[in-house]
User: Fold these one by one.
Assistant:
Number 1:
Amino acid sequence: MKKYLLSFVFIAFIGITSIFLAIGPESNYSENEKRYLAQMPAATVKSLTDGSFFGDFSVFLSDRAPFRDFYVGVNSYTNLALGRNSLNNVYFARDGYLINSPEDDGIENFEKNIDKFESFSRLVNVPSELIIVPRAGYVLDDKLPLLSKVYNEETLLKKAEIKTEFVKFNDITSVLKNKDKQVYYKTDHHLTTYGNYLIYSNFSENEPGNYEKEVFDGFYGTTYSSSGFWLTKPDNIEIWYDGGEYTVTVFDGNEEKSYNSMYFKEHLEKSDKYPVYLNGNQPLVKIKNNNGGKGNLLIIKDSYAQALAPFLARDYENTYLIDMRYYRMPVSKFIKENEVDKILYIYGIGTLLTDTSSSWLM
Amino acid sequence: MVFSSIEFLFVFLPAVLLIYYILPKKLKNLFLLLANIVFYAYGEPVYVLLMIGSIILNFVAGKIIEKVKHKRLWLAFFMVVNLSALGFFKYTPFVFDTLRGITGLSFLPDVKIALPIGISFYTFQASSYLVDVYRKECKASCSIVDFATYISLFSQLIAGPIVRYIDVEKQLRERTHSFENFNSGIKTFTVGLAKKVLLANKLGILWEIASKNPEGMGTAGVWIGAIAYTLQIYFDFSGYSDMAIGLGKMLGFDFCINFNYPYIAKSITDFWRRWHISLSTWFRDYVYIPLGGNRVNKGRFCFNLMVVWALTGLWHGAGWNFVVWGLYYGVLLLAEKLFVGKLLKKLPSAVTHIYTLAVVIVGWIFFAGESFGHSAKYLKLMFTPNSTPSFIYGGIITIVIGIISAIPLGKNIYNKFKDKKYMYVAETVVCLALLVLSTAALVSDSYNPFLYFRF
């Protein structure tokens, strides 16, 4: 009988998996994928005859597959062993870095966004500055694996330079390049607190402050979640306190709520800790500096601004953050009502290549 | 439904095996038939009726051909019906496209018909059955359940092998279910699954990259793409055949092998004895020999060969590139039969091997290409020096594993050790590893992080 061990193992394998499939996962939400898992599709005459039911059912099943994360990891590392240098568009880079590969060029969209910033700033006639955060793969090109694709940051930043006149374009590449300390997270596409500090020092006219640092470990960001390279070591995430007191008012689209800290530590409990800064992307965030500061700054931004804004808040009386992907009211009106003295556009290059929400700027 | 999917491996297969083995002998075929219909209807919910229609028609046709006087006439009639259905569903758009290209007929509509899965396979099985009944090589089936089970058997329904009725006639009525068969079926199935999921799919990515932008690949990159496709199509097709044969064994059937290491062939004639064997035999037995085969004068022999190969090409797909691909092999086989064959015997085997592979790789490029222009351009790039490095080089490891898997090395090692005492443990470990890796690849297909809001 033991000659037929394989038969028993095979039956056990498919049998147990099918039982798990029938029971389904504990939660309908996948923490790693940040999405709700597919639901059982409805069997209607239409969905059955046009075949859409079967496609949906197939997705439903693989979403419920037991040991899903284990399988995803096994698949990622198998591919790595077979010579792939990336998985799900994330490079397995040197020194434990997981870096987004340069996908879709979207140059036209990029140009449209820059043109929009320029024309909007002219319209409202407020001094403006533009900071574009290059992708990690461009700044840390020495970390990239063999045979990786070319990042076209140089062309893009040059274009931004040429297209801006009223808006002052601030190229921060040299600020970030060749630093001994980590400027990008290894498991996430964002800049570290230190990286943001470098940008702030370059941007601000004030003397840099003294910071008290608090370090949290176990941060797994987006590139980690996408890649399935589960054995990668987590990042540390740091909070730098400048000693000031701030009142933060978050408008989530429905209501405004005020807090007395820029840091939302409940996010530190989760594996993805980046939303600790200003509670993640929100349509509108207002930071009031209770220790003074001069003038009112409006930041029009994507998530790269989250970790930079706490530094900037020290310099201004009021710092406002508007995320055009969620904010649907006339920004020019907001500028007038709140007496904005300066606009800072801060975006990751990836957003400018793909996102079209700047067309709502008016 | 396809074998390489979660729904097949972990829903359909366990359910079918469990019920199949619980049921008494008498009900096994009826259950298999139901399972086949579910298998087919999953993904082809409407065309399943076409298959059922074809089954009933051919069952009745077999009875009629067996009984009537004018057998030849009736056979011809039913063959026309069968082939018309195949022709209508598979070739109508192709015919219209071709006609529209002729001046004066451009007014013809652009017809689109979805191809019913497996129609090429089950039509050929049914046709072989009718001819065999006509030739009195077998009796017409007495049981519609058995006959329907034969035509629709899920294991070979979608991608072959093309099983002849006379080969499984007895097994349909009486077959042995043993641990021995079940165990060996699992091995064949698992190897087939791994061929499809772990090799073919990954090689397919390389070919996709290379064929999308061959200019950017450099000469080495273009070659990697071409070799990747050559390996992909073999692992894809033979993987499906292995899975079919393995599943058949798990259910007590015994099917002939369909691929026998085609890429070690030393001539084109040899290659086609090793590639998709059940199709080549079908064409030999039901087209080539009835036309007179090679026992005719030279002119007629050439004609016969070309007809068979034009049809073989057309069977693979409705497009002129497939016809040309078939004729390309027709011409080469003719050359080998007439004079090159003698020459090949004198040459060292390394030379004949390279000749065969070169012919096959060039053939696949035309087989795979979306247009002649694209294929010709691709071929030209393969022979234009260009040292641009490309990220496709990372595929080398996959290619090497593919090449090693395409030669009988693994089989030879296995045969050497298969009688050793603890071989069953090694077999189990290897198969389980292949299963887990294949499942990992299938599950990961749907891994789809939604991270937009974080940017």
Number 2:
Amino acid sequence: MEQFISLTLGGVVNGSVYAAFALALVLIWRSTRIVNFAQGSMAAATTFIAVAVIDAGGSYWLALVVALLSGLVMGALIERVVIRPVEGGPELNAVIVTLGLFVAIQGIVALVAGVDERAFVPPFSTVGYEVREGFTLLSLSRNSIWTVGAVLVTMLALIALFRFTRLGLAMRASAFGQEVARLLGVRVGRMLTLGWALAAAVGALAGMLIAGDVSFIGPTFMDTLIVFGFVAAVLGGLDSPIGAVVGGLLLGLALNYVRGYLDDSLLGMAALVILVVVLLVRPGGLFSTTAARRA
Amino acid sequence: MSETQTPTGDPGAASDAAPTTATAGANAPSAGAGGRRSLLPRITLLRHLLVLVVGAAVAVLLLESTELNTNIKLGNVAYLAIAAGGLTLLTGLSGQISLGHGALMAVGAYTTALMLDVERSEEPPSLALVFLAAVAATTLVGALVGVAAARLHGPYLAGATLALAVGLPGLALYFSDTFNGEQGLTIRPPERPEWFTETVEQLSGATGRGLNDKWVAYIAVACLLISYFFLANLMRSRMGRTWRAVRDQEVAAELAGISLGAWRVLAFVVSAAAAGLAGAVLAIVVQLAAPGSFLPVLSLSLLTAVVIGGLGTLTGALLGSALLVFLPPWLIDLGRDVFDMEEAQASQSSFVVYGLLLVVTMLFAPAGLVGTIRLALLRRRAARALTRSGRG
Amino acid sequence: MTRNSRRLVSVLAAATIATSMAACGGDDDSDGGGGGGGGGGTAEDNEATGPGMTEDTVTIGSHYPLTGRAAPGYSEIPTGVQAYFDYVNANGGVYDRQIEWVYRDDGYNPTNTSTVVRELVLEEEVFAIMGGLGTPTHNAVLDFLNTEEVPDLFVSSGSSLWDDPENLPYTFGWQTDYESEGKIIGQYIAEEFPDAKVGLFLQDDDFGEDGERGVRQYLDDDQIVEVQTYTSGNIDVGPQIAALQASGADFVLGFNTPPYTALTQLAARDLNYTPQWWYSNVGSAPDLVGSLLGAFSQGAVSGASALAGIYTTSYIPTVDQVDDPWIQLFQRIWDESGQEGVLTNTRVYGMSMAYTMVQALQAAGRNPTGDDLVAAVEEAGADWQGPAFTPFRYSSDRHAGISGMSVVQFNAEGVGEPKTPLLVTDTGDAEIEEYDGEPIAPPESGIPDEEAVG
């Protein structure tokens, strides 16, 4: 029972981390119908920028702000320079562009920061809550509460943005019907850029949260997250911020049970099984907004 | 994607032919093996046979005129190209994406390793038999995956196949008694026959050291030629046209009685068979089947080869695979020898340049290498025709 | 092709002559009069004997993960090797030959290893491979190197795979194998902590398995209360450490890589779990782990003392032993080499191995073939002394490396203090014995001086 509780709580924390990553993917999918494989190395890059700020004597919070801002800039730049020309073209071309970016950015991070791992101290204590002597819940620490909380707040903020603001409405319009949006006076191009910028900022947040969660970071520290974050986003339906978070939590829980009761090496297989089962029932993911496609 | 549609992009023809091809598709395996002639226009088959013969001649020339090390690299190109060829059929023709073909290669490689794993004193089973078994095993796995994949689209399929790429190699760790975990199964390379040693000596005077690697390279290239011959015929056949219809004209195809799901599964099965053969070839080239060889990056590389080369053509898949094998080491050499970098720095920089090259290619040659060249030729021809008509 | 093959023919011929000379294994013009850059012969006597061995150079190659997930730490090894070879070259090289050190990145992917090692052998024409890193990676080239008769010295992994002279006559291990290490650890715990409830934390490959096999030879099954494994790449070790805690283990022994030492320490701290810790040699890397953990102690304690009280094993000197003459030598050589970064344990590892390589080249004689090099290691290797605490097990029947280690505990300053004399043992049911020799100080010149065999 104790193991189950700690695995469940651990699953929630890991799940929020996947969810953070999935949120960034969902934002980009919503705005440009592209799966951004470069998300992982973009987030690694912004996290290393944050580390540079901390090394220079800045606080974690200053570093976080810098990471988010550099995410915004990086996202906007990438959309304008390399994504714009392939938008609306064959979807595989966009996939290859983001794969190319993934490889290139990771290489640049390694060249600048070196390949060695380094410590990343999270903002809050990671010491677990001691239920009783000899039984501590590792996942119930101040830092894990911050991680889960930050993801939930981000999700709510994104929902609010899309539901209740003119800007959010314009972004949604641009994503769903460019021509109509244009007729209505929305500057579609600008909205797409904003979508990427926002996504990269969320990705930067994810990077910071993940770095705090894993404690040690290197240029490749986001690699495993790319796969599980992507799976979480797909589980959720790719279109919905709530879906991303639910998908992330579901995946986090399932994988933690597998890790606890079976074996580490089956994590990938477990993700596959969950994904296939969910998609066979709902081919558009749990929170798909479009009608399920014909089989 | 666009250029594959042009030559046969006649949806009417595809739907007309659909009822017959659908039945032909049901007995596709036997059709592929024996009754191909009745399905294919004779002229196509002859043309492909001719290409096969020329390809074989070029391959021998290439293998005999290059250094042994290049021979081995050509072996690497061969197995990547076989898998990429299968993926071309799946992605270029049937319109499905797969980020998990590396895992299917693992099935082929492990089957090969297990079958060749006999005592040194014993005679291993014949290579042809082993390869057939590898293809059969992978086809089976491919059919399983294909059934699930047929119901999924775009990013959902991408996500599921990516999970496959991560998940399947994990089984080698979990069942480490059979698959020997992380350190993998070593594979004794096939012994070269006496006639090969003699022939090669007469051809290029090569003797002694490394001849076994040469023999393996020959096997790899032979497998490439044979599999491309099959794939080319398949893509040009009515089955190929049906797949295009399934991709481009879902509704029309369905109205014409084509079962979209069955055809998608079939495409997955065929491409899985290619991946299985590729894995078997990889196994004898690398002489090891280990999880570390089948990371998701392999699957992503295959997709890269297919798109960079020019989606939908086997030539493109071959070209893209060659690029994968020859470009990174060339970039590393460049960094080390010309820019005087440390090995680690040169290696890391090669990734940066490689990644940027992918981006740039997609921006300036969106149809891939083969597609772009074709387009340029077409344009020039059109321009020439225009000036001629202007003059006349 | 033809240029290449002609050269290959001459090598084969040379190799045949060498083997037909049976045990003496030396060319007739090889001098018996000591190495050290030229005793018993002059540069004029140098001859090219085949690939990688020209009149004035000898080329040694290797493969390491320089990029990707396995790169941290390991990518430093070849820079250590480079520093030592540079030092030897600056002092005249070996038999007036400059050592050329060519290494390639394989990203820890066996497919890449297979390609780059063939490139090293066929294109760069190395004389020998030295220190190829990793079990799955090197496993992919064993057959190739042995078929092509390329000396495959000193694989950088403690797997027992490399000690198989019958099937792999050209391959040699170097570091103490994981099973012997497990035995020494197991015996120490059984004797000194008979009441400890031991939990094992293992990497789920040959590293963890061989180590566990050794440990279980000395620890009863009921003294080992829990076994947890991890798959390299999965960085969340919380569940495993929680399970060890829940099992009541008060002594945790890890066969894991350095990042996992840091991860397990952090997870245990967050769980208020304070067992006695022991990390096998691979995972202890106090400099690396200390720098990782130091950041988390928020200045309360220094990084090095994060490992205070922890046990490990040792078979070559480590950088915390600033008074050790070998470390002083390597520090001097590293500083002179002008490469970036500081002297680390991984660089000491590379330099120590390079030292053994120079011994091997000296013992092989002035104009050796690959077979001469292999014969020299088999014949003389067991007598070589160097940075390694205990002798190598090399002979014509055995290709296993360093035979033993000592048990070490880190004190509050992060310096390892020996808890046992030097212990030697072997795989299987070989006894653990005290080593009766003494570690030696490095020669004045910092370069070995082995006599040519044969």
